[in-house]
């Protein structure tokens, strides 16, 4: 009798348990799908911002190199040093702030002190940038670099350089028609695109 009763209870409860398990699995699927969608959206924004940051850094380095070689403008291109400081991707920033940066800064200072005549002019700005990375206080290196203050400084520098470039070339249209005009103008515009997108995404 007890055995029949247990079989009867088991046959009645099996569909209930199966339906509960099915509903739990469906809820887990919905939660996993929502998590995947949210992670994709956030990851896409983060990837886009970090890619723009990398492009803006390379654009600033390109403009610095160009100015030191054959561009030679009257613009204050040394402003690109703090721009690079605030926009340098985190992994590169910590690499140059570590032992590698210490060695580069040490060699730069030694060359500048003991061999000033053999120290090339084009190494002034890169040497200054490495020194700035090394000696910057933590409030700039860790706090301001990763929030809206650093992004605002980058935006200000980009806007200033763009208006100076347009003024030096005689207008926005002329900035695209002169020699190296397109690459220079696009490089400076890239300096503005990253901070604007970073403000939007943050």
Which terms would index this structure?
202 residues; mainly alpha; flat; Cold-regulated 413 plasma membrane protein 2-like; COR413; membrane
Instruction: Determine the N-to-C terminus distance.
Output: 70 Å
Which class best fits the helix and strand makeup? mainly alpha
The Cα radius of gyration reads 28 Å
Number of helices: 9
Helix content: over 70%
Q: Could you state the order of secondary-structure elements as H and E?
A: HHHHHHHHH
**How many individual β-strands?**
0
Protein name: Cold-regulated 413 plasma membrane protein 2-like
Family: Belongs to the Cold-regulated 413 protein family.
Main location: membrane
Keywords: Membrane, Transmembrane, Transmembrane helix
In short:
The protein is mainly alpha-helical and 202 residues long. It has helices at residues 2-71, 80-87, 90-97, 99-114, 124-135, 138-143, 148-169, 174-177, 181-201. It is built from nine helices and no strands.
